[in-house]
Amino acid sequence: MTLRLTRRAALCLPLLLASCGDDDAPAPVARRDFPPLRYGYLPVISLNVQRVETAEGFVPPSGGDEVSGLSPVNLGDTLFATARDRLKPVATSGVATFRILIASIIRRRDTLNGVLEVRLDVTDGDGGNSGYVEARAIATHSGSIADLRAVIYDMAKSMMADMNVELEYQLRNKLRTWIVEPPAEVPPATAPAATPAAPSTDQSLPLPPPPASPRS
After folding, report:
1. Chain centroid to CA 42: how far?
2. What is the mean pLDDT of residues 125-137?
3. Which among 62, 67, 134 is positioned nearest to 101, based on CA atoms?
4. Is 16 helix (H, G, I), strand (E, B) or coil?
5. Which residue blocks in the chain are alpha helix, DSSP H?
6. Which of 61, 65, 98, 111 is deepest in the core (most CB within 10 A)?
7. What average pLDDT score do residues 170-186 get?
8. pLDDT higher for 198 or 149?
9. 97 exposure class (CB count in 10 Å sphere: 0-12, 13-18, 19+)
10. Distance between CA atoms of residues 104 and 118, nearest Å
């Protein structure tokens, strides 16, 4: 008996074969390269204090739609490490205290919303002069999420880049008097240009020959 394919079945056959091939295709490989986020290569901000402290007591959020705990890099540790990388005490008194207010990434279906917020308090040795700044960074991801850990890492990296810019901006605008700028570099002295030798003024002509002796 000869089997015959209808025209409709013949048209559908390539689609059926393609769908079978998809079942055998290898699953996408999950990303595994998540280096720590550090910022020691950025310019140091010198503060007119004796020490920079990191405040204890920050509790990472959890439960509900919170997914920051799935981050390949700990958001709290990254923020504290950035403070150590960027803030340098250079005085003999005074304290700067760096604290984390928010470090959160929330997922609702295919949307992730991340927020980082920190505060830096400064006070002099006598406690009579003080100030503070707050800096905030946000990021959003919308769309399909094939690798959740990779998406969270990229969001954290983006927020940390913004945080470095925002924190320095707030410091230079609201705590400018607490920042110690490095001394201006003095350009190296250059040797004075050699003065060209003055042209010789000796215009003397050859001496004339001695007069002839008189004849006797």
Report:
1. 6
2. 93
3. 134
4. helix
5. 7-24, 75-86, 148-174
6. 98
7. 90
8. 149
9. middle
10. 12
